[in-house]
UniProtKB/TrEMBL annotation:
Organism: Streptomyces thermocoprophilus
Domain NAD(P)-binding residue range list: 6-179
Gene3D superfamilies: NAD(P)-binding Rossmann-like Domain, UDP-galactose 4-epimerase, domain 1
PANTHER family the UniProt entry points to: PRESTALK A DIFFERENTIATION PROTEIN A, PTHR43162
Record protein name field: NAD(P)H-binding protein
Signal sequence segment: none
Stored InterPro entries: Ergot_Alk_Oxidoreductase (IPR051604), NAD(P)-bd_dom (IPR016040), NAD(P)-bd_dom_sf (IPR036291)
SUPFAM superfamilies per record: NAD(P)-binding Rossmann-fold domains
């Protein structure tokens, strides 16, 4: 039995989609109504990390689990690992972040991920860590301004980031969940090339067949816009991470996607072409 968490989100949905038919699968979801069509092949347990009883139900009989947590600063990992240990889970594949290995990264989000990694390593459960760079799908936050104004607004417009297609991260997770030999391994997952927001804007414009304009956000304006979606402490962490990108800390490329999945990491142009409708659907 494999348990998938985070299956209503971008990455967890792709993991569930990629797991072979016929495997015993279970999904833990706070709101099962948000699960996609791929959830039909899994047993659904309604619950969340803060509900020990639902964790017990979800983890009963599970041998391997895909762990994805998003509540920055929270103790969701600790609660999940306690329940997983009690249930006899043998292997946890956890999504962390590439910034963890950067000695210069000390923002709240990175510290939280480091703590969570150490909890897993000290849990007594076999583990695999996936450390992806930023997801290419983050550019979907530009969809409204592209559709209405033909403008992309972002920080660090000329600074490169080796962002990764979430589908490649999901494919790596599926391999780690269904194959032996990945226990005790750490994989830093990136795209095939570093690319800046200015370059992403230009590629989107070519695919859409119309010119797009890039506007650099000031830190002050970015703080306001990010504050509409995130708590203040998370906003400051994101702004700090942007400065690290400006210094070149996010440009490194690895071949981990190829080594895990057998196919090269998808470039941004491929991701954008496959999701182009999302940039023209907002009015």
């Amino acid at each position: 039995m494999i348990l998938v968490t985070g299956a209503t989100g971008t990455l967890g949905r792709e993991v569930l989609k990629g797991l072979p038919a016929g495997l015993p699968l279970r999904v833990l979801a706070r709101d099962p109504s948000r699960l996609g069509d791929e959830a039909h092949k899994a047993e659904i347990v309604a619950g969340d990390y803060g509900d020990p009883r639902s964790l017990d139900r979800a983890l009963r009989g599970v041998s391997r689990a895909f762990l994805l947590t998003c509540r920055v600063g929270g103790d969701d990992d600790a609660g999940f690992l306690r329940a997983a240990r009690s249930a006899g889970v043998q292997h946890v594949v956890k999504v962390s972040a590439a910034a963890v290995e950067d000695e210069g990264a000390h923002d709240l989000i990175t510290r939280w991920q480091r703590t969570n990694e150490q909890l897993l390593l000290g849990s007594g459960i076999r583990w695999t860590l996936l450390r992806p760079r930023a997801f290419m799908s983050n550019t979907l936050s530009w969809a409204a301004s592209i559709a209405s104004e033909g403008v992309v607004r972002a920080l660090c417009g000329t600074s490169p980031n080796a962002c990764v297609d979430p589908r490649d991260v999901a494919a790596a997770a599926v391999r780690a969940l269904t194959e032996d030999g990945h226990e005790g391994k750490i994989y830093t997952l990136t795209g095939p090339e570093p690319i800046s927001a200015v370059e992403q804007t230009a590629r989107l414009g070519r695919l859409l067949g119309r010119p797009l304009r890039f506007e650099e956000l000031s830190p002050q304006r970015a703080r306001v816009l990010l504050g509409a979606r995130h708590p203040a402490a998370v906003v400051e962490a994101l702004l700090t991470a942007a400065e690290r990108q400006r210094a070149g800390a996010k440009a490194g490329v690895t071949d981990a996607v190829l080594r895990l999945t057998g196919h090269p990491a998808r470039p941004f142009g491929t991701w954008a072409k496959d999701h182009l409708a999302a940039f023209g659907a907002v009015r």
